[in-house]
Amino acid sequence: MKFFLSIIFLTLTATVSFAQTNTLEHYLEISKKNSPLLSDLKNQVQSSQLDSLRLRAALKPQVNGIGAGLFAPSYNGFGYAGAITNLHTISALVSASKTLISKQYINSQLTAISLQRDSILNISKISERDLKKAIIAQYITAYGSLLQVKFTNEVVDLLTREEGLLKTLTQSNIYHQSDYLTFLVTLKQQKLQALQASLQYKNDFATLNYLAGITDTTAIELSYPTLEKTALPEPASSIFFKKYQLDSLRLINSRKLVDFAYKPKGSVFADGGFNSDFSDQPYKNFGTSVGFSFTVPIFDGGVRKLQHKRLSLQEETRLNYKAFFNIQYKQQIDQLNQQINQSDQLLKEIEEQIKYSDTLIQVDLKLLQTGDLKIADLVLAINNYLVIKNLKTTTNINKLQLINQLNYWNK
Q: In the beta sheet, which residues pair with residue 289?
């Protein structure tokens, strides 16, 4: 059974020890490349550019070929009235028309498309930040699991080296058999913890690959995620506040479009070709025609006023959301900075405690060689050392996660 557990332990830890190393930048680049959401948003931006071109093309004169033919037979006075159907007609025309629209109205429509494109671009930037934040968070989690693997392996190596000496001293009756068994139980526990840490790292590493869209399941040792606090931009230039700016511009432009819809509209048209009922000299029925039409709004039942009221309600909602988000933004930034500073203070105290714990273990190991140590004291010292080292790892990882959350807002 001992041999079997050793084989499992070596198998699980070998891949962590000897695999190649990848960096955080590698995963960020791969995840951005593989993200279907970012690709979709990029295509939406290109589609909005096509909408602008489509609008400009629709404002140009529209030319169409029009053809029609009719034959209404009659027999002995039975059939459609010839005065209505002309019995048989045929037309083949080329028609050109153009809607007369003011330049201001055209610019407002183009502005609406431009604002839509800017909104998609802003959403794309925020989505990219969301993806980056998720990848970094999982990378930090996996790296923390890797540190746990390395630390538990170091403890196992330390205990394994001393186990042989303690066994010899026990056989020489310097230590009791119960002391040796107590030490051996501690060693077995650490081996099991090392196995558990290896499995946890494999799981966290697989989750990282899943988020990044990587199908390779080979265990790779992760390098230290270098994260530093970055300066945050002014809210007015932040992509998270730009949404409210774009919404404000959109509502202003929507008011203009509502007003333009109630201004007179006109269009002109012309056609030319062949149009005949074959009643008299049809070869002379080639000709042209021109015309125009216009519409002047007079009364709409109050629809225009209701549309402006609806836009006013939307503006009120926008201001409420912006004010609430501004409060949350400031509170979150202050809280994250406070937690990072507290983590730094805690790490300083932990480092001092680690020095004491490490010194105590070194002294206990020297006393072990002379037989002047109680095994219970060594086990207690090792457990205390494990607790404080785990606290250091947890605090470091928590600090990196806090920096990641803070840096999320730096665009």
A: 271
Q: H or E segment at 279?
A: none
| Residues contacting 151, CB < 8 A, separation 6+ | 389, 390, 393
Superfamily the domain 2-59+101-262+301-407 falls into: Outer membrane efflux proteins (OEP) (1.20.1600.10)
Q: How far is CA 53 from the centre of its chain?
A: 29
CA distances, 39 to each of 46, 124, 128 (Å): 11, 9, 11
Average model confidence (pLDDT) across the chain: 83
pTM: 0.80
Sign of the C-alpha dihedral, residues 311, 313, 314, 315? positive
Tokens of 170: 């026990």
- For the stretch 40-94, pLDDT in tens is 988 888 888 888 888 788 778 888 888 877 776 777 767 665 655 566 777 888 8
- Domain locations in the chain as residue ranges: 2-59+101-262+301-407, 65-100+267-296
Burial class (CB in 10 A: 0-12, 13-18, 19+), 311: middle
Lowest mean pLDDT among 126-140, 337-351, 376-390: 376-390
